[in-house]
Specification:
Blueprint: H1 3-10, H2 31-97, H3 103-123, E1 126-129, E2 142-148, E3 157-162, E4 164-167, E5 170-173, E6 175-180
Parallel strand pairs: 2-6
Antiparallel strand pairs: 1-4, 3-6, 4-5
Helix pairs in contact: 2-3
């Protein structure tokens, strides 16, 4: 290897590190319109983005307010129901406070208190399920405790062992009944 070749191998030609510069053509008459249009589009984009963020925040606020309203409605519904039961409690406490009450007086007080309780339940849309003997057994409102032989039609109520209750047309507790057996 000659010294010229040796120099070429150790000192390769310097690589170009910058891309070639292309001259910028002079501004055409359409460029100011394009820049103006770009500025208009950027402004419109900012406006639409702002409107989107405001709508999103409003939606979240509405959802939060709705959740708070539901929570308050539940709280106040229980409060109203409890308030309607307070006179019943007061009547029971008054009955207990009378030490020399006769059995007749106590019975009269119990009947009056039961009427108060029934009125409170009715105000709160709690309705009794108390099927008559011979009524068709309804599995949606009745719970059969036993099936007994009876002279009446099969699958009808023989005896109500415990009343049931509906609240707003939904079964709160089914009526416990005995049902006539098939013959």
């Amino acid at each position: 290897m000659t010294s010229a070749e040796n120099t070429q191998e150790t000192n390769p030609a310097p690589a170009q590190t910058q891309p070639p510069v292309t001259p910028v053509p002079p501004a055409s008459p359409a460029e100011p319109d394009a820049l103006q249009r770009l500025n208009e589009l950027e402004a419109k984009h900012a406006e639409v983005s702002d409107a989107y963020l405001r709508a999103k925040a409003e939606s979240e606020n509405t959802r939060r307010r709705a959740e708070e309203e539901i929570s308050k409605a539940r709280k106040f519904a229980v409060e109203a129901f409890a308030e309607s039961l307070l006179p019943v409690k007061d009547s029971l406490e008054a009955a207990i406070a009378i030490p020399a009450a006769t059995p007749e007086q106590l019975l009269e007080g119990v009947h009056a208190t039961l009427r108060q309780l029934a009125a409170a339940l009715e105000r709160n849309k709690v309705i009794e399920i108390n099927p008559a003997a011979g009524a068709k057994f309804d599995p949606h409102q009745h719970q059969a405790i036993s099936v007994v032989p009876a002279e009446q039609e099969a699958n009808t109520v023989v005896v109500v062992l415990q009343k049931g209750y509906l609240i707003a047309e939904r079964v709160l507790r089914p009526a416990l009944v005995t049902v006539a057996a098939p013959k």
